[in-house]
Structure formats: structure tokens, C-alpha cells
Amino acid sequence: MISRVAENAFWFARYIERVEGSCRLISLAHMQALDFADSALDVWLPAIIVSGEQARYDEHHGREASGDGERVQNYLVWDADCPVSLHSSLANARHNARTIREVISREVWETINDAWLWFSSPEARSAFDVDRIGFYQELKHRMLQCQGALASTMLRDEALDWIGLGMNLERAGQTARVLDVKHHMLGPTDAQSETTEETIVWMYILLSVSAYEGFFKRSSRSLRGFRVARFLLLDVALPQSVRRCLMEAAQCLERITVSPATRKRKTSWVRLDALRHHLSQQSIDTLVEAGIHDELTRIVDETGAICADLYSDYFHFGGPERETPAPEELAAEPTDPTPDGQ
Amino acid sequence: MADPTSPPGLFADYAPPAATWDEYVSEAGEPHTGLESIFETVRNTSAEELRHKSRLAEATFHRGGVTFSVYSDDRGVEKVFPFDLVPRPVDAKAWEQVEKGLVQRVAALEAFLADVYHEGHAMRDGVIPREIVEGSAGYLEAAKGVRPPGGVYAHISGIDLIRDADGTFRVLEDNIRCPSGVSYVLENRAVMKRVYPNVFTRSRIEAVDQYPFRLRDAFASLSAKERDPSMAILTPGSYNSAYFEHSYLARRMGIPLAEASDLYVENDRLYLRTTQGPRRVHVLYRRVDDAFIDPKVFRSDSLLGVPGLYDAYRAGKLVLANAIGNGIADDKAVYPFVPDLIRYYLKQEPILPQVHTYVCLRDDDREYVIEHLDELVVKAVDESGGYGMLMGPQASKAERDAFAKAIEADPRRYIAQPLIELSTCPVWDGEKLVPRRVDLRPFIIQGTSIWVLPGGLTRVALREGSYVVNSSQGGGSKDTWILRGGR
Predict the structure, then answer these.
(1) Looking at chain B, which residue has its C-alpha nearest residue A262?
(2) Most B-contacting residue of A119, A263, A316, A340 (CB-CB within 10 A), to test interface
(3) Mean pLDDT, each 10-residue run in order, chain B (487 residues)
(4) pLDDT on residue A200
């Protein structure tokens, strides 16, 4: 498929995933703040950090405003100048979808377009004002609806593989970032039990990647930090676990480039394959021993590097150099869809 | 008026202007023969129902993203092409004539293009003045002596028709370069099926959904050398006002939608940059004008085109739809000669009449035009979209004087026509049915044969008294219902 279209499909999926992930993260922080009213900073600062927005937020609002839940939410939800706000990610998802409409199904288009129309409507704004949790739920459901449409209405071909690749790489990074914010709380796995407050933090971590119920289904042991880390990093039964995401991402790339010999010449593949092998050989003990923060950083950095490699491997390769027209030239066209006529 | 004892219905206060054909009713307010059933359906719809259906239609268009981008005012704004729910019917008999006339006209224009860029018989035989042809901005040196691969110039034509006071269809304008609007024909129909499901089961209305695969088949037929020709659509990109249509056709035809930077030419062959490496393209349906299509040959500052595309075309390695140089065939200055071209090339009388046109290049015509500017519609031959024209009867003296000067300075650039009372069709204004003026753009596909889509884009001037149907100037569209006859 056309490289540019593949790139847009890949990004479309990342934005969808980002909206869903951030939405969950912010709504959880909002609920958590209700539990820990006296330490709002401990709740909101991590939300800003996981979004990768600490520097920009400090610059615009000041470090002291990091505990101001309303300000943080307004920034992470509505601010068009924040590149990862729900507004920006949803607008980007919708814009990308519009440029690849010929490869996505009508249902996928309608769910994302509907979500955008809803998000831009006064109705969404008033839901945000009067029923905050309902607002986040609605948006999350709309993203899940979109993922459902992707899973059930798309042709099983290359476009879907690019979407799957983008979604899984984004998700792996998101899970790793969420975990990394609390990495300092991870003690040795044979340590004595954690405090109640620590347990609640781990519960919120599980909730913020939608893994709470799954955790208790997979194990009857008590909720402990290292078990959460193990579950989120290594359990292939969990669709959000880093290991599962990398496995699925690798399968997508295997279908995109079928020949193993050709794959071996692509840096993106070599990197992805190495990372997933590395993780499959680890246990939570070896990870904690090696330094969980370093391991998580490696995951975040490597998934980022894989995305960068995809550019030279697939999105921008072959044929002579190409120039992209400036939007001004593209827009210098009649504004009439049916020009001519009396 | 209709029987006063029957419930008045939506047509109760409906009064088309005098000396104007109305698409539904006669001067006496009776439905035209063959349209009785549709008339009844519309008349018996309640205002509440129409209000509800209008909202439903609007929401459906927004939801489907059936929009065009408007960048002149606010960047990134997408608008829904205004749509009116009252269908525009055409009875089977009238359509049969239109269809024949369109096939004939496209055949003549096709012959004209082949002639103009090769032997030039029509000019030598005095059918059309050489200066009209060679002075046209649409006449391209680059097209001279080049046989379009596949042998066809006008793959897709959109011929604008109007209906005069007698109800006679007349050609107003030809669009043989990149006619747009067909996606709205198809999407309008889809919406109408949703809001009027019962009518479709009762009435016999020609289907329009076959257009995309008809087009695909036509392209495939011209690339006969290739067993499985690879096709693509070239769009200026998602910022273009007609982007929805480009994307829509790509989807419905199942072919890739490319931007210029996705394509390149090597050894006179066109390639797509894909994730699997270069992929050859045999047929390119380009939605980019000639001037922008290849910066090596035409406008060198254009990034909308592909360097070397022209070479691939000239070398016979690429079917381009439409062909290069078609602008000469839909030049407004050539239009007055089309009936003679039909007689000359096809040895037939024109089936579809057109609008009488004064060619300002001719001394007699020019004198008449300048004398009668207050009665005429003057058009610059190189403008479109309702721009560069003077609506004489409504213009101020200053505007008329400015046009007189411009005509004297460059007569080749202007033509003039009497103001035609475009037919009216009922439009729902939110409260009641009101008569508004309409035109019709049918679409014609030419592969190894010529086929007319049974339907077309009905454009409507939504402002009271307006004759301008362009959406940039307050126009909207309607679904066109070609009624099936006894055929």
C-alpha cells in the first residue's frame, strides 16, 4: 500500500490508543484525587509526567499549578496547544482517518467522526462540567467502539496490520510509562507487605491501564507492587501487557513483510524482535534486580526508536527524493466542490 | 390550482414565477404528466415530517463526512454541501432524449479534440476559426500530435443542462477536464433512501450506484494491454475542496488514492511509493488540472504534479483520465461552435439544443452585446464557478460600463447569452415549499463506448430570485430522480 497511507493508518491507530489511554489515566487521577484530597500534587503530577508534558505545563502554568486538578484537566483535555491533549489526539485521529478513508471501513470512519463531532459539541462540554466521570466514560466508550469497528469491519489486509502495529506500540509505551511513574515504590520481591496507601496506588495503576479485574482473575495472591509490575510487563494473557503488545506488533510486521530475509534487513524489525526476545527471557525478579526503571526506560525508548525506524524502512523509502507541497498551495483551490455553470 | 376540496398539502401556496418552467407543476398548478405519483408523495408529506427528515439528512451528511473544506475564511472548516430533500424528477421520455443528446455531444467533442491536436480539419474547413482554437488558454502545445494512450480524451464529462421556459433541456456548458460532483449524486441518493424508504419501493427510479465500477471498467478497457492494470487516483490532498469526492471514488472503486509525492516517474513509467517498494501505475485518474500536473512541462512551481508524468503519457505508458489538453473542448468560446462541430464530425443534427451565444470576437456580435448589456449574461471564457460574469439585468451601470471596456480591450475573452429563465423546482425552506432555480449536471463515462449515468447533480440556487447555482454563491443540491419508463 502507499507509504503515506500506511504511515497515516499507523498514526491513526496511535492517536486512537492515545485518546483511550489518556482518557483512562485522567479519569483515574480525577477519582484518585477524591480519595487523596490532601495530596493532590501526588495525583496530578504523575498524570502530567506520564503524558510527557511536564516541561510545557510548568512553562505555561507554573510548577505549583501541577496540583490544581481543574487546571490540569483543562490542559490535558481541551488545550489545543497541548500536543497530547484529548482534543489534539482526537483531532489528529479524525484528520488521519479522513486522509485514509479509502482504506478504512465506513463504520470505523463513522465512529471516529461521531466521536469528534460529539467532543466538539456543547453537549460534551456540559457533560465535562456537570458529570465529569460520565464524560470520560463516554469518550472511552467511543474509542472502544472505534476499536471494535476496526476489529470487526476491516478487511484483513495491510491497512489493518499498520493499525495493529501502531496501536500495540503505543499501548506498550503507555503501559511502561504508567508503571515507571511508581517504579521507586517497587521494593525487593521478598520484602514485607506494603502499606495500605501503597496498595491503593497499585490498585489505581491497574485501573489506569484497565487491568484491575484481570489481575484478580489471574492470581489469588494479595495485591503487591511487584505482582502488578509482573502482570503489566510479562503476562501475555493481558492485552495491555508490554509483552503481549510486542508480540502482536511483531505479528503485524511479519504479515506486512512476509519474507524473513527481507525483514532481517529492516532495522525496525530487528529492534522489535530483539526487544520482545529480551522480555520473553525475563522474570520479574531479574527485571527488579537489573533495575526496573532502566528496563522501563529501555522499553519506552526502544518502542520510540522502532517508530522512527519505520520511517526509513517503510514510510519514506524508494524512488527519488520527494517534496511535499505547502498547505497554502494545496488550499489555493476553488472552494466550490462543483465549479463551473451559470 | 388543484382541487380546492382536497387537503391543500405542501403545494398550497406554491407559485413559480411567470414564464418559467417548473419541474413539478404546470402554470395551472397541475402536476406534469408522468409525475403525478411523486407530486402526491411530496404534497402529502407533512411539514413536521419534512422538518424531521431535513434534520436527519443533515446529521447523516455530517456523520458520513460528506463535506467540502472551505479554507478562504477559516482554516480547517468543513461544510456540508447544502442539500434539499425534495427530489428533482425527470420523466423517462425527456431523459431518453437527453441521454441520446449527451452521447452525441460527447462523441463530437471527442472527435474535435482528436482533430484539433492532429490534422486540424475543422479549422481548415472553416467550421471554427483558427484564432478561437489557438487563442484558447485550454489549447496546449504539449498535446499536439500526442495520441492519448488508450485512445480516449474525454473519459469523464459533466455537461451542464438547463431547462428553458418551454421545458426544453438545453446545454449551458461543457466540463471535459475534471468535472466534479458525482460523489454528491451518489451520497444524496444514499441519504434519500434513508429518509424516504417507502417512496423508493413505490416509484420506479433509476439506480445510480453503478457509477464507480462503470468508471473502473472503462479505465480497464482502455488499458487492454495489461491483464490486470494498476490504477490510482491523483488528488491535490485533503485540503482540497473536492477531497471528499476523490476519497469517495477511491473507496468505491477500490483503488489507491495518491498525492503527488506518492508518485514518481522513472524511464517514462509511473510508480507508486508503497511499503513494499515501487508499484507500477498504468491508469491515473487525475483530479489535478493540466497546468499543475507536471512541473517539468507546465507550471514549474507546482508541487501538486509529478515530474515526468507528461513523458510517461507521451510515451504511451500511462492512460491519463482525462487526457491532457481537454480544456480546448470546454472553452466557453468554443461552445458556440459545438452544434456545427456535431454536424461536421457526425453528420447529424444536434439532438440537444444549446443557448444562443454571442461571440464577442465577431464584430457584429460584439456591437450587439455592448448595445444590449442590460439584457445579457456576459461570461469571461476562462473563468468559472460563477466568477467573471455579468448578470446584465441585475448589474449596475458602473458594472456594465466596466464590462464594456473589458470586452473592447480583449474581445476573444468574452461571450454573451440571453438570460435564460432557469426552471424552478420546489425547495423546502423550513416552513413551506418555495420555487427555486435549478440546473442539472449529468455525468458521462467514455471507455470503449459512451455511457450516461441515469441521474446527475441537480444544483439549486437557494436564494430567492437567484440564478447562480454554485455552492460558493449560495447554491445547494438535490437528488435527481430519473423515472423508469416502459422500456
Answers:
(1) B276
(2) A340
(3) 55 90 93 89 87 89 77 59 92 95 98 97 95 90 94 96 95 93 94 83 87 94 80 91 92 94 95 93 95 88 88 95 95 94 98 95 93 93 78 90 92 91 93 94 96 96 85 84 77
(4) 84
> Which residues on B lie below 8 Å from A162 (Cβ)?
275
Measured CA to CA, the distance from residue B364 to residue B418 in angstroms comes to: 16
For A48-80, how does the pLDDT look when each residue is reduced to its tens digit (9 = 90+)?
Answer: 988 889 999 999 998 888 889 999 999 999 999
DSSP state, B285? Answer: E
Which of B61, B231, B273 is best to mutate for the A interface (most A CBs within 10 A)? B273
As given in the structure block, the three cell numbers for residue B387 are: 466568477
Q: pLDDT at residue A333 above 50? A: no
Chain B residues with CB-CB distance to A113 below 8 A: 62-65
pTM, 2 dp:
0.89
Question: Is the Cβ of B472 closer than 8 Å to some Cβ of chain A?
Answer: yes
DSSP string, A167-216: HHHHHHHHHHHHHHTTGGG---TTSPPPPHHHHHHHHHHHHHTT-HHHHH
Residues of B in Cβ contact (< 8 Å) with A325: 236-237, 260-261, 303-304
Cβ within 8 Å of B, A 259-318: 314-315, 317-318
Which three-class secondary structure state does DSSP give residue B435?
strand
Among the partner residues B158, B248, B264, nearest to A319 by beta-carbon distance: B264
- As a three-state string, the secondary structure of A62-74 is CHHHHHCHHHHHH
The rounded distance, in Å, linking the Cα atoms of B392 and B397 is 9
Cβ–Cβ below 8 Å for B422 and A318: no
Place of cell 475564511: B73
Q: Answer yes or no: do B259 and A331 touch at CB < 8 A.
A: no
pLDDT tens for each residue of A111-153: 999 999 999 999 999 999 999 999 999 999 999 999 999 999 9
Q: Measured between CA atoms, how close is B239 to chain A, in angstroms?
A: 6
Q: What is the pLDDT of residue A84?
A: 93
Asked if A256 is an interface residue toward chain B (Cβ–Cβ < 8 A), one would say yes
How far is B305 from B288, CA to CA, in rounded Å? 8
Of B179, B244, B262, the CB nearest to A4: B262
pLDDT confidence band for A301 (50 / 70 / 90): very high
Q: Of B63, B275, B389, which is closest to A113 when you measure between CB atoms?
A: B63
Question: What is the distance between the alpha carbons of residues B139 and B328, in angstroms, rounded to a whole number?
Answer: 5
Residue B296 carries which side chain, given as an amino acid letter?
K
pLDDT value of residue A342? 31
Name residue B446's beta-bridge partners: B450
DSSP string of B143-186, one letter each residue: GTTPPPTTS-S-SEEEEEEEE-TTS-EEEEEEE-SS---HHHHH
Q: CA distances (Å), B336 to each of A1, B116, B365, B381, B416, in order? A: 46, 16, 12, 11, 10
Q: Does B226 touch chain A (CB under 8 A)?
A: no
Q: Cα(B161)–Cα(B332) distance, rounded to whole angstroms?
A: 14
**Contacts of residue B124, Cβ cutoff 8 Å, sequence gap at least 6:** none
Q: Of the candidates B181, B236, B250, which has its C-beta nearest A102's C-beta?
A: B250
Q: Are B83 and B476 in contact (CB under 8 A)?
A: yes
Query: What is the CB-side half-sphere exposure of residue B3 using CA atoms within 13 A?
Result: 5
Measured distance CA(B180)–CA(B184) in Å, rounded: 9
Chain B partners of A326 at a C-beta cutoff of 8 Å?
303
* Edge-to-edge order in the sheet of strand B277-281: B263-266, B269-274, B277-281
Residues of B in contact with A268 (CB under 8 A): none
- Three-class DSSP labels, B218-281: HHHHHCCCCCCCCEEEEECCCCCCCHHHHHHHHHHHCCCEEEHHHEEEECCEEEEEECCEEEEE
How many CB atoms within 10 Å of residue B307? 19
